[in-house]
């Protein structure tokens, strides 16, 4: 074993590994976009003196998840919690479907098992992890097709988070006390015949090779806030309704 380090705001910070077996993944860790972004974008008011890697989960040849403890203080020397579950950003899509016949609006959700919260069937917005390309819109369109079967053009997706926050932050942080994940939330609106909407109900989708077992649920848009205990859905709804109220998005 040798000395390992990373650059955080141009300062050389040592990296230690709790288990020797983790050390072999050091180079993969240095290539991980989420880790590089974290190092590069650290606020200057925070001072990190050491990173201790505790566990790593591989997704094929690359690191998917990494857990580490950063020894961190504020500029005036006060220690702050630094346990990090790193997974990088994700995209989520709020789908608003208007029925051509009745003009009633619906949203399309995914239902799938979520072991971390002990739920066999959790209602959520369609979503997926970002890749290293940084192509938020492209990943959103790809995940939308994989999880719902809907093929969309990039131009048909509205980036609600970018519209709200501009460049001040990459997205919505669902669990900033322990995880770096941010959510880039997109809006996709379309119109369908009643039979098209019915055809989406309980449709099975997902990428089996990635272990996805997904069923679709169509719910009235007015009921989304009380149907779906998903931070992605509630955040998307908040942004969408505020933009509508301010007429910054046409009411369709």
TrEMBL record:
Keywords: Hydrolase
Cofactor requirement: Mg(2+)
Cross-referenced CDD domains: NUDIX_ADPRase_Nudt5_UGPPase_Nudt14
InterPro entries on file: NUDIX_hydrolase-like_dom_sf, NUDIX_hydrolase_dom
Protein's UniProt keywords contain Hydrolase: yes
Stretches assigned to the Nudix hydrolase domain: 86-241
BP GO annotations: nucleoside phosphate metabolic process; ribose phosphate metabolic process
One Pfam family linked to the record: NUDIX
GO terms, molecular function: ADP-glucose pyrophosphohydrolase activity; ADP-ribose pyrophosphohydrolase activity
Name by which UniProt lists this protein: Nudix hydrolase domain-containing protein
Organism: Hanusia phi
């Amino acid at each position: 074993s040798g000395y390992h380090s990373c650059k955080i705001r141009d300062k050389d910070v040592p990296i230690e590994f709790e288990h020797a077996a983790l050390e072999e993944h050091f180079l993969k860790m240095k290539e991980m976009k989420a880790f590089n972004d974290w190092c590069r974008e650290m606020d200057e008011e925070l001072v990190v003196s050491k990173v201790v890697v505790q566990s790593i989960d591989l997704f094929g040849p690359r690191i998917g998840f990494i857990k580490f403890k950063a020894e961190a203080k504020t500029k005036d020397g006060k220690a702050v919690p630094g346990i990090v579950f790193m997974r990088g950003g994700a995209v989520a899509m709020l789908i608003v479907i208007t029925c051509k016949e009745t003009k009633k609006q619906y949203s399309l959700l995914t239902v799938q098992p979520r072991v971390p919260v002990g739920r066999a069937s959790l209602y959520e917005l369609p979503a997926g992890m970002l890749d290293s390309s940084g192509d938020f819109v492209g990943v959103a369109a790809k995940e939308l097709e994989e999880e719902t079967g809907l093929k969309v053009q990039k131009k048909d997706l509205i980036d609600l988070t970018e519209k709200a926050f501009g460049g001040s932050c990459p997205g919505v942080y669902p669990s900033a006390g322990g995880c770096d994940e941010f959510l880039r939330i997109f809006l996709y609106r379309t119109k369908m015949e009643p039979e098209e909407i019915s055809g989406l109900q309980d449709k099975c989708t997902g990428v089996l090779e990635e272990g996805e077992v997904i069923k679709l649920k169509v719910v009235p848009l007015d009921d989304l806030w009380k149907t779906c205990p998903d931070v992605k859905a509630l955040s998307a709804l908040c942004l969408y309704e505020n933009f509508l109220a301010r007429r910054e998005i046409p009411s369709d």
